[in-house]
Amino acid sequence: MEEKANPFRNLPKVDAMLERSDVQSLLSSYPRWVVIEGLRRILEEKRKAIKEGLISSISSDEIAKELIDRIDEFSSPSLRRVINATGVVLHTNLGRAPLAKEAVEALCEIAPNYSNLELDLKTGKRGLRYTHVVQIIKRITSCESALVVNNNASAVFLILNTLAKGREVIVSRGELIEIGGAFRLPDVMESAGAILKEVGTTNRTRVSDYENAINENTALILKAHTSNYKIMGFVESPSLKELTELGKKHGIPVYADLGSGLFVDVRKFGLPHEPTVFEVLKSGVDLVSFSGDKLLGATQAGIILGKRELIEKLRKNPINRVLRIDKLTLSALEATLRLYMEEPEEKIPVLQMLKTPLAKLQERATELKDAIGTIPQLRIDIKKAKSAVGGGALPLAELDTVCVCLSSEKLSAKEIEERLRTKPKIPVISRIKDDTVLLDLRTIRDDEIEIAAKSVREAFS
Ligand SMILES: *Cc1c(COP(=O)(O)O)cnc(C)c1O
């Protein structure tokens, strides 16, 4: 009677489960917390299923069996390595830029040890954590001063909050960007306490529009890079140079949010022209900011360059402390920046990928196809395709690429894509075009070919 009234009473307790010999033997191979966490989760699910009337009871034997089946899943980390077969070099969902070997070495040196993070080794006095990267940024770009914060969104926020709190910021209506997630320029402006002064129209904004908007409450002129869209056709917007001249005339600082910071000219990769940080600085802007993990190819960071007195103001804003970067970021960022003084295109993965010639991609595709071998349900071909750069950089640019294409009579492209993503130990993230799954060789390194092939085989075993 009692049992019927309360089916939850039949659910075994964690403690009782832990005493079973089959669960005990799991404890010899897995940490105790993993086993307990696994049990808790299964019991939680069963409780829910009972509540919803999906099951009426469950035995401890069944729970133990389920735990043994699922323990691998519970014990593997949530953040895992994947193979990026999308061809999108800067994929925000896949962690944007993979780091250079030199950056990883720097991380391994700094992470487990103490460091001079905020110690000036010459004087023995307290130093600034930014010094380590600022010196090198100055050397690369010849800027007056620099600051690094958590990401470029923080950089935008810090600049607006420091220079324009309670005052107006002039922005063209064609540049009121949404980068994705919660980053929408008008909202960031509002949370930073700045007042958005929109000028011009979606497609055309002239210098005179900016000039007419200037009043005694104007704090800043902002030029935002339209990173993920392009307005085409009847368009006009003033150059940065024209804006900086206007700014000088009225004593108003001009800030360029570049989005993706570039130290190399991407035209040599067959991509359309994108102004480099040098070009932008040359136009006379007072401040420029960009991401560390877009085309720069380093870690997540927001890099701010510009006039010394403005950078000082930013550094002293208490919010800067909230946005500060940690030593791991700094070590990898400094190491990556150093590569710009050597051979960036040979050593920075993002640039290497953009640079890879078609013939090389073709070769890799053949290697991957051979390494996969034959899989009964699958048809495997090699085809040319186009891929995007991604990551809020070069929105319309396409690169020629080569793909290994997977299709099947029995499985839909969606099912193939899902298997590749969910079944292998190292998941393969692919893209679908014309009902075919494409594995794009631009973002699969030579040393990943074997791993990718193994994962593909695992997905269909
Ligand atoms: C990407 C981007 C940002 C945000 O940078 P995060 O590093 O992702 O914080 C801001 N502005 C522009 C123009 C961007 O392209």
List keywords for this structure.
single chain, about 450 residues, alpha/beta, seven-stranded mixed beta sheet, four-stranded antiparallel beta sheet, 20 helices, about 15% strand, globular, binds pyridoxal-5'-phosphate
Characterise this structure.
By secondary structure, this protein is of the alpha/beta class. The chain is 42% helix and 16% strand. It has a 7-stranded mixed β-sheet with strand order 2-10-9-8-7-3-6, with helices on both faces. A 4-stranded antiparallel β-sheet has the order 11-12-15-14. A hairpin with a 2-residue loop joins strand 4 and strand 5. Helix 4 (32-51) packs across helix 5 (60-75) and helix 19 (413-422) packs across helix 20. The longest helix has 20 residues, at 32-51. It is globular, with a radius of gyration of 27 Å. It starts with a helix and ends with a helix. Bound molecules: pyridoxal-5'-phosphate (PLP).
